[in-house]
Amino acid sequence: MKVIKWFLAIVLTLVVGVTVYLTMFFDLNNVKPQIVDAVKKQTGRDLQITQDLSWSVFPSLGIKLGGISLSNPDGFTPASMLDVNEAVASVALMPLFSQQIEVDLLTLDGLTLHLVTQKDGRTSFDGLAAKTTADKPKATASSDTKAKLLQTLDIGGIELTNTNINLIDMASNTTQTFSLKSFTLGQFSLGQFADFAYEFSATLPDMQLTSSGQGKVKVDQALKNVTINDFAMVHKAQGDSLPGKAVTAELTTQMTLALDANTIALQLTKISAMDLAATGDVKVNYGTSIPKIAMNLDVGDIDVDALLPQQEDKADKPGAKNDTAPSQEPDLSALKSIDLTLNLTAKSIKVSNMLTQNWQMKLAINKGVLTLSSLTANLYEGKLALSAKLDARKAVPTYQFDKKLTGVQILPLLTDAAEVDLISGTASFDVNGSGSSLIPENMKKNLEAVGKFEVADGALYGVNIPQMIRSAQQKLKGDLSADKKEALKTDFTSLTGSFTLKDAVVNNPDLTMASPLIRLKGNGTANIATEALDYTLTTSVVGSLSGQGDAVDESLKGVDIPLTIKGTFQDPKFGIDTKALLEGQFKDEADKAKEKLKEGLFKKLGI
Question: How far is CA 263 from the centre of its chain?
């Protein structure tokens, strides 16, 4: 018992002695000039400490600093790089004797950083590296050594308030401001979860951001693993470029950081933004020169069109020019610094007004090459299968693709995708191709492809071929009476063909259409740059062309009737090549037919 009393007396005497010495004979403010001189010598910067330094000894060994300012390099504006209003740190004294660190409280208030980048590339960080230690090898301690040095680490709490970082770019004359209003960490001990929370905001050239969050963090005793649970964040953004000029996003995640393996694992239990909802997981290996990222995402319904900013429609304004198409290749250099694999499933995705369901996609980006190994989806009652590759390692990117559509209802697809209602039916489509450049106009010129198509049980809209033939037949007989108004639609049982695409021109050499009334064969071209159509077709009548209530006329059966398709995708023009018709099967009766036409015309005009 006496030993314990003597021990406590000795410890108390030491503490009192140290306290008296530090407070009466050792003034921290006496070392401020030495600190200022050392900073000047090592960095060439001016350090100012305007407030008196103070500390406490028992029961905590603490220090309080304030009014700290570190200058930017000469000629920079603002002149100050770093300002600190107040910093306080205190450590429980007695546990230090047994290699235990118990921090009562760490507080930092009013930290402001002005990080400037000059037009010539100089930055606020230039010259901060200590000159005398630049060539010395860095000594590092392993996590095992650190764990042995710290048997326990207890922190009563951490408070960071009113922290601001200003990124100033003199070349672009822009300033980005990041503000950490507060960060708090509750009672913290190794191996135990501690509560934390933050409030953050940022001012960017084109938007305002705010973010807040809270969660629980744990660091294991070996200092090798960090676990964050129930990390819930709310992000808000405002800006003219955003959909509706405002976006709110919520994220809840669980995270594990393995310091010894250089890996981060995220379990995304909730992602929501506007009408988007998703779950998934992310794994990152940051121990390589290019971090390896593996993502699995499962999303619900995505309306890409709604996510994009609204563009003012200038096409209908007098004198307006469509100058929205880019004139230079997009900068894809970032793909060279990405090593990503992504597996995505989605309930539905709407893009460019086209709706697809049940997406399953496998995508990888590595060393500047994007590989879409597989994409399958349901598309207008049919199926889409696509694989593609984009090589962005050169200034002008190249690409290749293989695309298959099966059992697709072609009319709603064309209507939604291009506002074209030219054809209906159940379509199958197979095309593969390659090209270079991502500038739209160059894509059309450089794209080369081959493919084939088949449409079953459909119709051509904008033309009634049987009615056209009946009308031509009547006029050849001299009947110039008004045509009957019938639906501009030609039904067919099958429409097939193959095609090649080169120099922005689709060449279709073997178009074939069959219906109960007619057979149609021919060839033609479609220019995807000008949208011009130029088809020459031959139609053979195999059934009765008579309309309801008309007398049956079988005189055209077996006769080849030439047709033409001109105009554009949006406004195709169908017609009968009357000259070719007269010079062909009706050549022997051409003169007679012309006379009848004249007589009918004179009679019609009352001559």
Answer: 24
